[in-house]
User: Which sequence fits this backbone?
């Protein structure tokens, strides 16, 4: 049984998101990153290559050789193309540890159609993580829409912005964030690690117990602490274990059981989120009720 059918996708995405951002942010993944508003501006470079890379005929752009540009404010950028079947990308890849990965903090990318050269999206990496970025897509002649994406979850989705794609080609990042204002969730990209000491301790405790667990397709722990198959609720006979949904339930059970005195039932968890939420509230004391 797939994870999406057992654990509500929105809930599961936010669960993973919280673990990644609140627990990992002070570790090696983002250790070399700086506050977003301190990222060295590259708009002068984008202005200089606008006509020759961003709006030039696709065939001519794809024949160009990559080059390295030294930013006046410090750091280096490699400008290159990446080919796809129907589209191609123009990547302004920041250097990090001698490598131009394309997703180091501050990297910028434009996707264009190979057929007519039209602009389909602009993507900016505010942290050194290929799964974390903001992107802009055309909406009409006067507006674009903004997405803020973290590990396949949308923090912001299709938010209309009073900016054209042409303006975004050369717009400084700081100015862009000013236009977005409070609608841009900057706190996820400039977190304060000291605020998440308890979360990191929690993740450390979970990690210590991982050796107790085995993987089993469609597996989970029932409310009676027996290993069962999620789809049928039949008992597992040999080599019991959990799948990804079963693991998420195991974590949540560990959080709630000290308050409720019981583990979650599996059947309600397989219901649509709206139906399940009302049922579970009756089992939870006021002190741990989620905010509505």
Assistant:
């Amino acid at each position: 049984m797939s994870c999406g059918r057992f654990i509500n996708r929105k809930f599961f995405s936010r669960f993973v998101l919280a673990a990644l951002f609140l627990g990992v942010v002070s570790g090696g993944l983002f250790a070399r990153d700086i506050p977003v508003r301190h990222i060295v501006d590259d708009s002068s470079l984008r202005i200089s290559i606008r006509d020759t890379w961003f709006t030039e005929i696709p065939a001519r752009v794809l024949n160009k050789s990559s080059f390295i540009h030294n930013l006046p404010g410090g750091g280096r950028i490699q400008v290159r193309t990446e080919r796809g079947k129907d589209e191609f990308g123009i990547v302004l890849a920041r250097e990090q540890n001698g490598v131009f990965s394309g997703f180091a903090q501050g990297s910028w990318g434009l996707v264009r159609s190979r057929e007519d050269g039209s602009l389909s999206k602009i993507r900016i990496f505010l942290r050194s993580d290929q799964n974390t970025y903001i992107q802009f897509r055309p909406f009409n002649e006067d507006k674009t829409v903004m997405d803020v994406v973290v590990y396949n979850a949308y923090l912001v989705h299709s938010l209309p912005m009073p900016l054209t794609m042409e303006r975004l080609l050369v717009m400084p990042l700081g100015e862009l964030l000013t236009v977005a204002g409070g609608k841009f969730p900057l706190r996820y990209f400039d977190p304060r690690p000291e605020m998440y000491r308890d979360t990191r301790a929690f993740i450390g405790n979970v990690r210590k117990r991982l050796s107790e667990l085995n993987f089993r397709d469609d597996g989970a722990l029932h409310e009676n602490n027996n290993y069962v198959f999620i789809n049928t609720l039949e008992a597992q006979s040999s080599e019991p274990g959990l799948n990804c949904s079963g693991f998420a339930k195991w974590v949540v059970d560990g959080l709630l059981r000290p308050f409720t005195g019981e583990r979650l039932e599996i059947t309600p968890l397989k219901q649509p989120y709206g139906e399940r939420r009302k049922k579970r509230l009756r089992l939870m004391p006021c002190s741990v009720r989620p905010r509505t």
User: Anything to note?
Assistant: Strands lie at 67-70, 76-83, 87-94, 108-113, 119-124, 132-138, 144-150, 153-161, 219-221, 227-229. The two ends are 30 Å apart (CA to CA). Confidence is low (pLDDT under 50) at residues 7-16, 22-29, 275-292.
